[in-house]
Amino acid sequence: MWVPVSSYLIEHPKGLVLVDTGWHEEIRLNQKKHLGRLAYSMFRGDLPQGDSIAEKLHSLGIKSEDLDFVILTCIRTTSG
């Protein structure tokens, strides 16, 4: 099953706003660990090189310190 993981960068007059952070680059190395057993049993992640939010921001010349706001629309945990 293919499930999109989206992030958005908004240039607002009050600063840069990042909406959702997407998957970390480590998802490429150990999906079972980062997704959890149940999610891993249902789908696999595909995060091509250069497509993580950190890599995308870097390609735009933006550092994480340059972000003024980060909005997380969905917070889930597999560890309790």
UniProtKB/TrEMBL annotation:
The Metallo-beta-lactamase domain, residue ranges: 2-73
Top-level taxon of the source organism: Bacteria
SUPFAM superfamilies, alphabetized: Metallo-hydrolase/oxidoreductase
Transmembrane annotation, as ranges: none
Protein name per UniProt: Metallo-beta-lactamase domain-containing protein
Listed InterPro entries: Metallo-B-lactamas, RibonucZ/Hydroxyglut_hydro
Pfam families recorded: Lactamase_B (PF00753)
Gene3D superfamilies: Ribonuclease Z/Hydroxyacylglutathione hydrolase-like
